[in-house]
């Protein structure tokens, strides 16, 4: 009986198995389309391709021994057919070969079998080979306090163990893992996930697979994506209830009151996802319809909560689908990129309660990540609660509201504007204000200043005064605050009349814009001035803080275009930063959502920056 095996039968080793068992197995007519598909899979680094080629080599040995007649027939697939393999194009070519040769089609693919029967072909279907052990082969490395296991070719196995907040990265086996063992483990993990009802492949790309098996999330990296086979398995070691956290009653009342926008923030390993799981379970018990958006899916939630991943690799498509499902709350784990924040904001503004998990080293940093990504006035509608987790406990909770008022530390009534107030949830005391000041978005701490006695708004005011005066004066500028609404500006003697302007008009305009009374004096009038040494000789301007010390800043190379001077800061979207030249303060700006700072050419700021570039000064960016 003539046999035409398809790709699945070759990969599973069913052809050589049939020959070795003594069954009627000849001749074997291998379609060239099968060879081409196996070659393509092997080139992509897929084990199935290599396994199929090994089967063809076994058949060649059997043919040399006279056990079977093996011939290659048919044509190679076209590139268009190869790219359409998942749509059945290659399977169709193989069926055509079986029909032309009047042979029996041997397959382990149930769909291929049913289609061939429908077309009137002789078909022999064999059950696909079960791959993998059915268990997690690396589970032996885990104990009750192990959160993650880290394995790599040529290294000793390591793990993170301990209580939340007290994790230690430690060696757990003195024997170095060789490549053969790592390949065996990696293959078994992937095959077990494919075949077991307890697992699935979350991601499968050449060089990287992400597996979810029971409550383990396992990342398997291979060359050339990684420099060796690496397996990282993570498992939650704690499942909590919202009652286990501080402010539990208050948070429950807040979440039940109405759908809200919540950011759960903290450092890696702090317990953010564990708290998010507790919130999800509480909301479900409170009769809310709860869904999750995760990539990969690893929150440990009950069966009542459906876990969604990126639809077609795009969370925006997932969000569109969820809006049709109409959940009351959605847990978004994790919100990292600009697109993630956009999806989060769109769903929240559509009326869905949103709980996002965000990496941040301070509670206020989580909120600042929205700046530049969401319209400033919309932030309290998108996020009204920030929960900061540290060492597995609720450390800080912020209440976020908006109010039209004069910012704290300013008094002029005409300075009233929309201000986002960030208040301590427990005490109700405002801790930060976020608002637009002189065309820039700023985050100002409320309360006492730091060690030098300067408050946040005072520092901001000093920087803005200096920026305004530097756009007018030609020489060195120093600024000294005398109170919340008074300042003294020291300039070169030749600049006095120019800064003040005719009849005091120019300095009055600056005072009106900033809401601060400014007294203009020469450097010679500055108290404590050393005789004969100019203020400019210090190498610092007021507010720059110099270039030395612990913060040397990020060195950048501004790009000068026909209309703008552009500073690229792709990794700092939404952050407020200072630009300095050789350590001397130039201006403060917020990095836009495109990842850059654009200064219009022709402005005083752009002129200063271009002069610094022409002088080949070192341009640096510092956190504001």
TrEMBL record:
Q: List the protein's name.
A: ATPase
Q: Which family does it belong to?
A: In the N-terminal section; belongs to the PINc/VapC protein family.
Superkingdom assignment: Archaea
Q: Does the keyword RNA-binding apply?
A: yes
- Any one GO molecular-function label of the UniProt entry: RNA binding
Q: Which Pfam families match?
A: PIN, T2SSE
Instruction: Give the UniProt keywords, A-Z.
Output: RNA-binding
Q: Which PROSITE patterns match?
A: KH_TYPE_1
Keyword Lyase tagged: no
Domain spans labelled AAA+ ATPase: 258-393
Q: Which residues form the PIN domain?
A: 1-114
């Amino acid at each position: 009986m003539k046999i035409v095996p398809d790709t699945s039968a070759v990969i599973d080793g069913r052809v050589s198995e049939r020959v070795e068992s003594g069954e009627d197995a000849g001749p074997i007519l291998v379609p060239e389309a099968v060879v081409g598909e196996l070659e393509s899979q092997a080139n992509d680094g897929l084990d199935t391709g290599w396994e199929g080629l090994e089967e063809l080599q076994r058949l060649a040995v059997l043919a040399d021994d006279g056990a079977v007649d093996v011939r290659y027939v048919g044509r190679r697939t076209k590139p268009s057919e190869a790219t359409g393999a998942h749509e059945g194009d290659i399977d169709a070519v193989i069926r055509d070969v079986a029909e032309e040769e009047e042979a029996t089609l041997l397959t382990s693919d149930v769909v291929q079998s049913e289609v061939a029967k429908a077309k009137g072909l002789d078909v022999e279907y064999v059950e696909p080979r079960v791959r993998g052990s059915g268990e997690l082969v690396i589970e032996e490395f885990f104990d009750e306090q192990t959160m993650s296991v880290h394995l790599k070719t040529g290294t000793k196995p390591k793990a993170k163990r301990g209580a939340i907040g007290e994790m230690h990265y430690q060696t757990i086996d003195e024997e170095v893992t060789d490549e053969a063992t790592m390949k065996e483990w990696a293959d078994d993990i992937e095959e077990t996930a494919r075949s077991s009802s307890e697992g699935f492949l979350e991601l499968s790309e050449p060089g990287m697979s992400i597996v979810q098996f029971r409550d383990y999330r396992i990342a398997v990296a291979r060359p050339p994506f990684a420099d060796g086979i690496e397996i990282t398995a993570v498992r939650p070691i704690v499942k909590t209830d919202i009652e286990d956290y501080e402010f539990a009653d208050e948070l429950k009342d807040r979440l039940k009151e109405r759908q809200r926008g919540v950011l759960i923030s903290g450092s890696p390993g702090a317990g953010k996802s564990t708290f998010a799981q507790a919130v999800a379970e509480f909301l479900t018990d409170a009769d809310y319809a709860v869904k999750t958006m995760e990539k990969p899916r690893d929150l440990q939630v009950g069966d009542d909560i459906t876990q969604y991943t990126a639809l077609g690799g795009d969370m925006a498509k997932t969000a569109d689908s969820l809006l049709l499902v109409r959940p009351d709350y959605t847990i978004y784990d994790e919100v990292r990129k600009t697109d993630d924040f956009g999806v989060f904001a769109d769903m929240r503004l559509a009326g869905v309660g949103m709980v996002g998990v965000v990496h941040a080293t301070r509670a206020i940093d989580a909120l600042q990540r929205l700046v530049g990504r969401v319209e400033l006035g919309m932030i309290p509608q998108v996020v009204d609660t920030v929960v900061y987790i540290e060492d597995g406990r609720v450390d800080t909770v912020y209440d976020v509201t908006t109010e039209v008022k004069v910012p704290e530390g300013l008094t002029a009534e005409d300075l009233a504007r929309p201000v986002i107030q960030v208040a301590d949830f427990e005490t109700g005391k405002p801790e930060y204000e976020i608002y637009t000041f002189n065309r820039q978005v700023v985050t100002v701490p409320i309360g006492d200043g730091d060690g030098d006695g300067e408050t946040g708004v005072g520092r901001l005011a000093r920087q803005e005064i200096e920026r305004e005066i530097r756009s007018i004066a030609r020489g060195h500028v120093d600024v000294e605050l005398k109170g919340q609404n008074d300042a003294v500006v020291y300039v070169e003697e030749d600049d006095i009349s120019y800064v003040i302007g005719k009849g005091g008009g120019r300095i009055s305009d600056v005072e009106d814009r900033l809401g601060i009374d400014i007294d203009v004096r020469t450097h010679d009038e500055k108290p404590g001035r050393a005789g004969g040494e100019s203020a400019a000789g210090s190498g610092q301007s007021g507010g720059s803080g110099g270039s030395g010390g612990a913060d040397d800043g990020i060195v950048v190379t501004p790009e000068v275009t026909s209309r703008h001077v552009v500073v690229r800061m792709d990794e700092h979207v939404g952050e407020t930063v200072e630009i300095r030249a050789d350590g001397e303060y130039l201006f403060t700006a917020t990095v836009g959502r495109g990842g850059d700072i654009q200064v219009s050419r022709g402005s005083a700021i752009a002129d200063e920056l271009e002069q610094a570039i022409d002088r080949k000064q070192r341009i640096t960016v510092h956190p504001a």
